[in-house]
UniProtKB/TrEMBL annotation:
Coiled coil: none annotated. It holds the Pfam family SBP_bac_8. It comes from Devosia neptuniae. Belongs to the bacterial solute-binding protein 1 family. This is Extracellular solute-binding protein. Its main location: periplasm. Keywords: Periplasm, Signal. InterPro entries: Bact_solute-bd_prot1, SBP, TAT_signal.
Length: 429
């Protein structure tokens, strides 16, 4: 089998294997000259298709290196990664999120990239803001795959039917109450998802109130009063009939994108990351619009900009030079980045953004326009959360369900969240 044909076969096998693609299983002594590395990411059908195509392109362009692709859904990804860390068999290149990056660096699971810069890793065209987000204690640990922001996605047909007029970059929580109520009254569709148990919206709200989710020492910084006030916003909307009933929303906590209210037609507004706009639109016939998370009445911003995901070098890499060569191509190679598009967010490479612009679909252009529109209107990005932050997020979602089910008074739930968060941080130190 020729090198070209063998590589074509391997790339095709990866795409066909779907969520459990592990190309190293094809290894034989005949292919012993190849340097083999693995890339593991959390994905969905669209992301997986694009990423396997990128792997196929890289394998064809780089004789001597063979990349194997492995993917799982986001709900299972970190569980599998934890198992791999314990077994010391992580993939060479792994996908990572800003919210949990520090925890994995602290565990020694991710290696710094500095010694490969200017050699197998080219960062010369990457935005400095993206590089800064991937640095911890002066070392570059993470390469941004794309920029991202929290976004309120709305069904433009329903908004038009209700005669809604609002500023998508300057609306407030008071505007949300008005808009959601008007949509519900005019269309019979609930105006908005209920974000009571949405940790991302909650974390933004904490900063809008002038507090920090975690202070410089890593202490949980959200006061019980702020937690209760956040719950009260959504309780008011729920009482007004502008959201689905609490029991319905409780069953959707952590739901996959295909079950979101805007996708199923149950609500007119769902809340997401901006890189998820393409996936949402692909599941809908109605056109999707984009707005910031609501501002406070004092116009303190309700959205942030941060890397959507990173690609990182794992502690268990078998060939760091080959892995960083692949990582470099993943964010810089014009042919590969054209396949990736905006599915993981707005690319951090200015040349890549310019090359993609003429080829954008309508929803991708909407995503870029939203990203352009929020410049200068967002909160500053907080430092990466400390160890235990992922457990605190899961705890918040679990405990907040008690509010949706009306099982406990809001002040009691707010105090419980504070106590449990403080306990998690003590154990994680």
């Amino acid at each position: 089998m020729s090198t070209f044909n063998r590589r074509k076969f391997l790339g095709t096998a990866a795409a066909a294997a779907g969520s459990a693609a592990i190309l190293s299983a094809t290894g034989t002594s005949a292919f012993a000259q190849d340097r083999r590395i693995r890339h593991f990411w959390w994905g969905n059908p669209e992301r997986d298709k694009r990423t396997f195509e990128v792997i196929r392109l890289f394998n064809e362009k780089n004789p001597g290196i063979v990349v194997a692709g492995e993917t799982l859904g986001s709900a299972d990804y970190f569980t599998r990664l934890t198992t791999q860390i314990a077994g010391r068999n992580m993939a060479d290149a792994i996908q990572m999120g800003y919210g949990v990056m520090f925890e994995y660096i602290n565990r020694g699971a991710i290696l710094p990239l500095d010694e490969y810069i200017g050699k197998s890793l080219d960062i010369s065209q990457i935005d400095e803001s993206a590089l800064s987000a991937g640095r911890v204690d002066g070392k570059l640990y993470a390469l941004s795959i794309g920029a991202n922001s929290h976004v309120s996605l709305y069904n433009t047909r329903l908004f038009d039917a209700a005669g809604i007029s609002f500023d998508p970059f300057g609306w407030t929580y008071d505007d949300l109450k008005r808009v959601a109520g008007e949509v519900t009254k005019a269309t019979g569709v609930f105006g908005t998802d209920d974000n009571t148990a949405d940790y991302q919206n909650f974390s933004d709200y904490v900063h809008q109130r002038g507090e920090r989710l975690f202070d410089d020492e890593g202490n949980f910084g959200a006061s019980a009063e702020t937690i209760a006030d956040y719950f009260a916003i959504w309780a008011d909307l729920r009482a007004a009939g502008a959201t689905p009933p609490g029991q319905v929303s409780a069953g959707l906590v952590g739901a996959e994108l295909s079950n979101w209210g805007i996708v199923t037609g149950q609500t007119a507004i769902s809340y997401a990351w901006s890189n998820q706009m393409v996936g949402v639109q692909n599941l809908m016939q109605d056109k999707v619009g984009a707005a910031m998370f609501p501002n406070t009445p004092e116009m303190i911003p309700g959205s942030i900009i941060q890397p959507s995901q990173f690609i990182c070098l794992s502690r268990d890499t078998v060939d760091a030079e080959a892995a960083t060569t692949y990582m470099s191509a993943f964010v810089n190679d014009p042919e590969m980045t054209a396949v990736l598009g905006l599915e993981r967010g707005i690319p951090a490479n200015a040349q890549v953004r310019a090359a993609l612009q003429p080829k954008l679909t309508e929803i991708e252009a909407t995503s870029v326009a939203f990203f352009d529109g929020i410049q200068g209107k967002t909160m500053n990005l907080a430092p990466p959360p400390p160890s235990g932050a992922q457990e605190i997020e899961a705890m918040f979602e679990r405990v907040a369900v008690a509010v949706l089910l009306d099982q406990a008074p809001i002040p009691d739930v707010a105090n419980q969240i504070r106590r449990e968060a403080e306990g998690i941080r003590r154990r994680a130190r």
